[in-house]
Every structure is written in C-alpha cells, then in structure tokens.
Amino acid sequence: MSRSSYATRRSSLLAVLPAFLASILLLRYLWSVGFDAVKQGADTSGGWREGNTAVGGVFNASIADGERSPPVQLHVNKRFGTKARYYAPPRDSHFADVPEHCELVHLHLLVRHGTRNPRAGDIAKFRKLEAHLRKHRQPHWPEWLVQWRNPYVEGEANALVAQGWRELAELAKRDVGRYKRWLGDTPGARHAGTWYASSSSAQTVNSARAYGSVFSGRLLPKRALHLVKKKDDKEISITDACPRWLQLAADKSPIKKTLAPFKKRYLPKILKRISRQLQMKVGNGFYKIAVKLCSYEYAHLGRVDAWCELLQPGISSADDADNSDDVVEGLDYSDFSEDVSRYFKSGGGRPLNERIGCLLLSRILEEMQAAAQSTDPRIKSHIRFGHVGTITVVLTQLGMYEEKPDLLNHHRQFRMSRISPFAANLRFELLRCQGKLSVRTLLNETPIRILGCPSDTDLCPWPIFASILKNRIGHWDYDELCRAVH
Question: What family is reported (predicted)?
C-alpha cells in the first residue's frame, strides 16, 4: 500500500470515528436506561421470553409508525380488576378531543404505571406450582397444562414489561395528537413546558420514560423527574406513606365480612368444578394462584385459552355472557373479590380514604390556579406517574364511585377494571372556551362529571370546580390524619 493511500484511508477512518464512538455511547445509554431490556429479556435457551420485559426505546419507531396494542376484548377485560388491559377509545371517536370552541390552558395528568411483572412472592408460588404439577401430571389434562412452565423469574419481579411500555407510548402518541396545538408541535417544545414526577418505584419511573420517549421525544433521565422516596411520598404513593392507612389495611375483617356470604355460596362450586375437570382436588390456594396466572397471561399476551379458560369456561367465546344469580365462575368471583378489597383499601369503604388525597388535590389546585392567573405560563402540563391508589384515592376524595360493590350487579360503579386498569389515567384540562375558563375531567380518556358540576355538560366552570376542590380538600392535615394509633 502506498504512503498516500494509507494516509487517505487513515483520514477516512478518523472522519467516521466520532460517529462510531457516539453510536457506542448511545447503545450503552439505552442499555442502562432502556429498562435493561436485553439483559432481562434474553432467555437462557437463546430465545426471547415474549412479554416479560420492556424493550426500551425499540418501541419508539413502531409506535410512530402506527402500531397499536392488540385489541381489547371488553367481555374478557372487565373480569381482571387492576390487572385489566388498558382500553383506549376507538380511533374514530373524538369525545376525548378538546372541544372545538375551546383552547387548552393547562393539563394536569395522573397516570398509573403500565403492565408489569408479578411480585416476587407470587413468582415464588408459581415456581412451586410448576414443581407440583410436574410431580402429579395426569394424562387427561389439557396439553397446555401438561406443558406449562413458570415464565417469570424473581429477579424481574414488578418490572415494566413490553406491553406496559407500549401502553404508555401509545397514550403519549394520542396526547400529542390532541394537545400539540397548545403544548407544542415539536418534542422539544412540549418537553420544555412539561413538569414530570413519579413515585420512586421502578415500574412508575420506567412508565414515565416510556411516555416521555414519545411526548418529549427522549428517554427521560432520572434528573428530569421529580422523585420522592416511597415512604416520604405523600402526593403520589399516598397510601404507602401513611402509617395509619397501613394499620387499617392490615385489618382484613371488613373485607372478609363483606365477602363471606358470597364465598360460602359460590367458591365451593367453583373449586368442585375445577377439581372435577382436572380429576385432582384443588383448594383455595390453587384457585388464587390460577387467578393470578390467568390475569398476567392476559395482561401480557392477551391470552385467555389456558388458565383463564380453566377458571371461566367459555371465556374465549365472544358470546360469553355476564354472570347471573345461578352461574358465577372463577373470574367473576375473583374480580368481585378484588373490587371489595380495593373498596376498603382506597375506595369509600373507609373514611380515611376520602381525606388522604388532600395534599395531591391541593397541589393540583395550586398548579391550575397559577395557570389560570398567568397570561403565558412556562409550565403548561404537570404529569405524575403513580399506582392504583393514586387515582382511586383522588376519585374517592372527589366523591366518585361511592357505591359498595355487589357481585350480582353487572354494572356496578366501583369496578377496578374500568377505574384503574394498567396505564389508567385521570386528567384535568383547564380550558378557555369563548373567553371563559372551564375544567373538563376525563378518566381513561373518557369525560366524567365531578359531583357538584353542571350535569348537562362535560365542562365545569372554573370557579365552581375550584370551589368543589377546596371543599373536598377541607382543612385536613395529611400528617395528622396518617399518625399511627398505638
């Protein structure tokens, strides 16, 4: 090789070296903050465990190209409580769009984390069940049960999964479409006007990153999020930071008392049918594990033909009917049981739940008041990422869904699959409509009416809305309310 050719090639390599190094740094960054997708998702057999981990920024391109989550089957989805899949409004519906005669002044958005992996304790139970089934395998079992293996590992407990990432990215994409006129046409403009906060749990932090990857056009580093340790987080992890709430939650007697007549009437029949089908006696422990396996199988993969079919025969059929006084199957009962439990944990079942959202509601009111009084607010949207209790406690303090759950009420108000599925969201839009300020409240992208607001419109005049919040907040002191009783 001539000296001149060598020099030319050397200069060419030096020219591309910075770009190459930048690519390496970017890959390292995505590896570290992109939910450790490659590290968590790789199967020991060299394959990929579908649905067990979020694949970081990989979804950005597919979401931008219009890919959506598999369609939700409503007759199935309503039976999964807080493990239900998020049901987005149909593409051709426009009831979530800002009304034509209005402009957005400020957005306040509360978002539950997306679909996650089971907790470590549940995964340990799944592992033991796998060993038990392999030991007592029967030739007449359905093929899926004979072949079943626990797909979860305890090191990935609670981690946001691929479906969870997709839910938040899709939500952000819809929000860009409906709000970009006011919040910014470019990701940079939207990011500059947005304040993000999250509970310190990994699944909520990563949900914020998934949403931000589309809304702000970047994987949000932790420094871009307002984070507070769980035990001190009185605004997002509302219940977990409240010692008195933790004391009351440990008392299961109101839940057991409410469930007792239904448990006596329906659970033995459910267990008897499953035992007969498997030709193996099963008890309440097996039933509870099967419910969780069914729930996560559906949440992650949309699958209902295995554990779910065992619990609820015929659920795979679109003709699957509502429960009746005579027929209550495994998922009907488990869904109702969770609704009752959540009613006491964060609904109207305990007076404390109607008060401890005071700090968060005060913050929301302050932020909206500041926006209402400013001609050009720098922060145009406040977005917080939390948990089931974050949304449910706020709705409870606002006086929503106070009716006690009833198994035989097919359209019961307090139904967690509708109130707080994975990726649930509650938003307050401060709007200026024909020169006057109003607030529109939406739960899961569907307008709802706060008690005390006009009943003939989705818009609540700002003075009325502010007055309702002030009355609901009252003079409650979070620290005083949450002082443990010894």
Answer: Belongs to the histidine acid phosphatase family. MINPP1 subfamily.
